[in-house]
Amino acid sequence: MDPVVHVKTNNGDFYFDEIVVTLPLGCLQRHTVEFSPSLPYELNQAIKNVSYSSLEKIFIAFPTAFWHESSQSGMELPDKDEKVVHLPHFVHYLRSLDDNRRPWTIEMNPLSFNPASDDSTKAIVLITTYGACASHLASLLQDLKQNTPEYVQAVGEFFRPYYSLLPNYQSESLDCRPVAAIATNWKNDPLTGFGSYTNFQISKAGSSEDRMSIDNDIRTMRLGTPERGIWFAGEHTAPFVAVGTTSGAYWSGEMAGVKVLRENGLLRQVNWEKQAVI
Question: What is the pTM assigned to this prediction?
Fold first, then answer.
């Protein structure tokens, strides 16, 4: 007899022949849902072993992309058809610029692709951080509502030591003051599993044996428990080239769907799947 999966929820009980579990890795690690009987030991260990990131993203918008303006140096803006010399696309600050802060790691990525454009929506800086810095920022914003002047000011003040190093920054210029900001708070979100996505920590991948162990753990999660009709999908089960990405999560869902069809004799050609999981 084919397995029947019984799912109990606050809204009632449901029965399925097969299910695909797409919970974030952090939710699985925190046992947000219970499996009865418990998942196989190897699968539980794989879920436990793979590290889960605390990365956060912050978007800060300005009236104009002042870092591309050349008027400060006495040069005229180039025509749209001319090539433009940009600052490095990614700026990586290894140490804090404020003596009162820890040596946090912060990356800054200007998202303005066309400095000659009048479209102010492109005057955005993306900042990524993690760990202690992300936790500290979350504590600063926890009592503030998004889309309020107080929220934008708090984000702007916190990251000013970094974006103030962009070319042409002038503290008194309105063009250099944030007009909007939004920061993720995945670390404190139970629906994300209190994190962002799978990562490969150096301490857990320092040797070839460690890296092989992580690879095997991801393969184990990707396999699921077909004998019980339980499959897993999500960025943590994606092909290795796409682990930790939205596209990888989507890809893993397609792979899980193919496996369900194959197990039920509804699909014969799965060559693309074999290539995807290498």
Answer: 0.78
How far does CA 86 lie from the centroid of its chain?
26
List, for residues 142-157, the tens digit of each pLDDT value: 999 999 999 999 999 9
Kindly give the pairing relationship between strand 230-232 and strand 19-21: parallel
- Distance (Å, whole) CA 114 – CA 120: 10
- CA–CA distance, 64 with 31 (Å, rounded to integer): 46
Say if residues 263 and 226 touch (Cβ distance below 8 Å): yes
Report the C-alpha gap between 63 and 49 in whole angstroms: 45
Question: How distant, in Å, are the alpha carbons of 76, 83, 123 from that of 73?
Answer: 9, 18, 20
pLDDT in tens, 70-97: 544 444 444 544 444 455 555 666 555 5
CA atoms of 37 and 228, how far apart (whole Å):
10
Q: How far is CA 276 from CA 24, 47, 169, in A?
A: 21, 21, 46
78 closest CA partner among 86, 179, 36, 166: 86
CB atoms within 10 A of CB 184: 18
CA 54, 140, 163: angle at the middle one, nearest 5?
80
**Length in residues, the chain:** 278
| DSSP percent split of the chain into helix, strand, coil, nearest 5 | 40, 15, 45
Q: Which domains does the chain have, with CATH numbers?
A: 5-51+202-264 (3.50.50.60), 55-69+86-191 (3.90.660.10)
